[in-house]
Amino acid sequence: MRHSRRKCALLAWAVALCAPQLGGSAAASSPAATSPPAFGPPVKVIETTCGGCYEPSVAVDKAGRVFVMAYGADRIAVSDDGGETFRQVAGPPKTFPVFGDAILHVDGGGHLFVIGLGFPIGVQVSRSSDGGRTWDANTFFPAPDADRPWIATGPDGRVYVAFKVNSVELVYRSDDGGVSFGLPAIVAPPGDTVQIAGPLVVDAGGRLLQPMFTGGLLTSNALQVAVSDDGGRSFAFHNVYDPPSGGAGGYFPIPSVGTDGVRRLAWVRTSDTAPEAGNEVLVASSGNRGSTWSDPVRWAGPPVVASPWIAANGGALDVAWYKLTGGGTTTSLLFARGAPDGSSIESTTVAAGIVGRPTMPAPQNSANTDFAHFAHLPDGRAVVVWSDGAVWLSVESPSRGRTRAHHPPR
Q: Which entry of 111, 130, 314, 405 is 20 to 30 Å from 342 by CA?
């Protein structure tokens, strides 16, 4: 997200920790608990020379190679051994001063994609066919007002790029694997505006889904999904969550599609039962391709900062998020695995005492990213990244017992 908008969003959510901004519907239910996964010790993957190394992103290919990049980094960390050791490769070539909001993505054919904002002039998406050693495609989208780009790939090899410009989302499609792109679809709900949009996802049948908060204010917005059955040419909108009073939430709603075809969304919203405590993580699901959605289930209580991340994992659902600690001066990164219907959940702390960005005042300094981020190894174990001066990574242990919170060495 662009710096000015990020500061506004952080300020808005910091205020939410102290005041009941988003009161509304009945409290979401809380599921029972089960044993959480355990994580190994942290590994430093990108050093502090990368300008703060916040907003990290991670992706894993079918061979188990792990790729990590962060805002301000001009390189990508690559692991050939499942996250135990890393080597550095150069990031994609660029012609602008800052590459921000970077997201990594790997498609089914093993191509590595990097998408990010080229401040102050637009969006760039790059493709590598050899794990980042070389870059065989670079496409630039001139858009000075662009914000938070996303990328997704379909089973047919199509590549989709989306980013917000003013009050609409633009969705581009490539039919040649990301080498070239056609004209965009302009996506916005009829008679309304896009406030902020989450990632695109594509299911096994090539259908697209993108969640977004619509409306002009945090205190009165709604959560909707845009769904396309024709390869991104047109989109239909469906309501996910529109409480009778207050707003549906903020930051980025994060989607996932499981092997069962069920769509799920995770987002943050101020707690109904304790609004003075701040934000909680909610999850809703749809079994009919996004047309209708379940009531949300609460996966994590307040005070949550930034957006969670969610991904289906076999018969389970994984969710990660940041929680404010130390009176708002630090955060902890938490991870939970539970049944997809929310019938059993328990979280574990992957990292604690995260300072994040000490150049910013508390509590904004602890929100060192727009969202938590993780990916899965081929065997289903999670790989979680975070920033604390440098970029750190922790891999889920093969044995699924309890784990203690890790404090990275300074």
A: 405
In 3D space, the residue among 358, 353, 333 whose CA is nearest the CA of residue 408 turns out to be: 353
End-to-end alpha carbon distance in the chain: 28
Distances 24 to 248, 270, 350, 374, 388 between C-alpha atoms, Å: 8, 9, 32, 31, 35
- Spatial neighbors of 12 by CB under 8 A, at least 6 apart, are 21, 218, 250
Pairing of strands 75-79, 87-90: antiparallel
What sign for the dihedral angle of Cα 28, 226, 146, 203? positive
3-395 belongs to CATH 3.90.1170.50: no
Token readout for 395 is 């891999």
- Could you tell me which of 302, 296, 238 has the C-alpha nearest to residue 21? 302
Provide the CB-side half-sphere exposure for 89 (13 A, CA). 19
Give domain limits for the chain: 3-395
Its pTM stands at 0.87
- The 3-state secondary structure of 90-136 reads ECCCCCCCEEEEEEEEECCCCCEEEEEEEECCEEEEEEECCCCCCCC
Residue 328 token pair: 């708002």
- Is the omega angle on the peptide bond into residue 120 within 30 degrees of 0, that is, cis? yes
Residue 223 and residue 240 in contact, taking contact as beta carbons nearer than 8 Å: yes
Query: What does the alpha-carbon distance between residue 255 and residue 266 come to, in Å, rounded to a whole number?
Result: 7
CA distance 396 to 327: 29
Enumerate residue ranges in the chain where pLDDT < 50: 2-33, 358-366, 400-410
State pLDDT tens for residues 101-135: 889 999 999 999 999 988 778 999 999 999 999 99
- What is the spatial distance between Cα 201 and Cα 188, in angstroms, rounded to a whole number? 17
Residue pair 270/21 in contact by the 8 Å Cβ criterion:
yes
